[in-house]
Amino acid sequence: MHIHILGICGTFMGGLAILARQLGHTVTGSDANVYPPMSTQLEEQGITLMEGYDPSHLQPEPDLVVVGNAMSRGNPAVEYMLDRGLRYTSGPQWLNEHVLQGRWVLACSGTHGKTTTSSMLAWLLEDAGYEPGFLIGGVPGDFGISARIGGSDFFVIEADEYDSAFFDKRSKFVHYRPRTLIINNLEFDHADIFPDLAAIQRQFHHVIRTVPATGRLLAPVAVPAIDEVLAMGCWSECERFSAAGEPAQWQAKSLSADGSEFEVLFEGQSMGTVQWAHTGEHNINNALAAVAAARHVGVTPQTAVASLSRFQGVKRRMELLADIAGIRVYDDFAHHPTAIETTLAGVRGRVDAAGVGRVIALIEPRSNTMRMGVYRDRLAASCADADAVIWYQPPGLDWSLDSVIENSPVPARLSSNLDQLVAELVAELRAGDNLVIMSNGGFGGVHQKVVKALEQE
């Protein structure tokens, strides 16, 4: 079958393309932004990529068009597809029908940590010999690829609450029919499609309705937004976890200030100690969810805890890009004030434990919710654990960051010129500093520019 994918270079659709190719289909795709690393990953899989959305990309006509959720009416390829009556579907629907049907699906959902938690969970199953399939919105260091069919009935998926397509406004995860469901946290996000938190909660309850009675739901305690969803009805087993000391079946006892060492407890009994290169309470929380989910399919907590100590992390999630003259440069996919806050808290713990160095944050507010200014009043406080922060005002941002600078609890400044920003930043950095670059986009290649400039220094 020839499948053509519209919006193929997004992390989800790119992963779907890889799965389709591994199933033996001929796969082509169009996107407005065809560039590495996704383009390279896809081309290595034998997938033909086309720049833009010219109707000619659909000639000769494919057997099926899979439409990404970034596509909308008025797009030339979409209009041609509809006019010609081509067979089409959404990415999540295709996944349900051709990959997930009949498999044990382990879905990782929540406002934050989906990519990291699903990467952890896939690794725990892999290290235990389960050979899981997976589709993750990032590239796990333990696999080097964002998706694979796998060699067993187990499939780990990053379960996103964003909508499925222009013709299907249900959240993607409603299509996945998980047997094991993690809801890691729940906050208002995606203001471009959801009017309020209640609308998001309804979608989360829709997916809870699909979990069988023999399935299992895993969620943190003391999260009112999740408790409210569960109060709407839950028909499955439910286990709760806590990395902050609240009573729960799964708990973590931190043994270091930065979260790099902690003990996992199940029903009050120690399951072992994790020692790893990652930091922050949020990652401990992610780890508890992954260990609990792995136990549902038969991986013992002791085995999972040992595997976590070998977890390599995910690209763009506090990924260390370079360590030059004692200056560490990190890339982090921060998209929300909570993500910024928890990430910087983890780095602060590590710096304080070392007793030397500074935490410098360079942030581009790029997500749709950020661009709409929904969280403008929370951004300043989210950087309290940094020693200094530089906010980048990207083109097209609909509001001014001046108020964020004025209300910042730490020294802060604003920049709209990337080249000038890099020059000033490199001149200020010194040995021991930790520069955390935060954006859910390419950020104009600033990561590479900073690294190159430091190397020249």
Automatic annotation (TrEMBL):
Residues 2-99 form the Mur ligase N-terminal catalytic domain. The keyword Protease does not apply. It comes from the Bacteria. Residues 109-294 form the Mur ligase central domain. It catalyses: UDP-N-acetyl-alpha-D-muramate + L-alanyl-gamma-D-glutamyl-meso-2,6-diaminopimelate + ATP = UDP-N-acetyl-alpha-D-muramoyl-L-alanyl-gamma-D-glutamyl-meso-2,6-diaminopimelate + ADP + phosphate + H(+). ATP binds at G110, T111, H112, G113, K114, T115, T116. GO terms for biological process: cell division; cell wall organization; peptidoglycan biosynthetic process; peptidoglycan turnover; regulation of cell shape. Its EC number is 6.3.2.45. GO terms for molecular function: ATP binding; UDP-N-acetylmuramate-L-alanyl-gamma-D-glutamyl-meso-2,6-diaminoheptanedioate ligase activity. Residues 316-441 form the Mur ligase C-terminal domain. The keyword Cell wall biogenesis/degradation applies. It holds the Pfam family Mur_ligase. Pathway: Cell wall biogenesis; peptidoglycan recycling. Its cofactor is Mg(2+). Keywords: ATP-binding, Cell cycle, Cell division, Cell shape, Cell wall biogenesis/degradation, Ligase, Magnesium, Nucleotide-binding, Peptidoglycan synthesis. PANTHER family: UDP-N-ACETYLMURAMATE--L-ALANINE LIGASE-RELATED, UDP-N-ACETYLMURAMATE--L-ALANYL-GAMMA-D-GLUTAMYL-MESO-2,6-DIAMINOHEPTANDIOATE LIGASE. Belongs to the MurCDEF family. Mpl subfamily. Reutilizes the intact tripeptide L-alanyl-gamma-D-glutamyl-meso-diaminopimelate by linking it to UDP-N-acetylmuramate. This is UDP-N-acetylmuramate--L-alanyl-gamma-D-glutamyl-meso-2,6-diaminoheptandioate ligase. It comes from Spongiibacter pelagi.
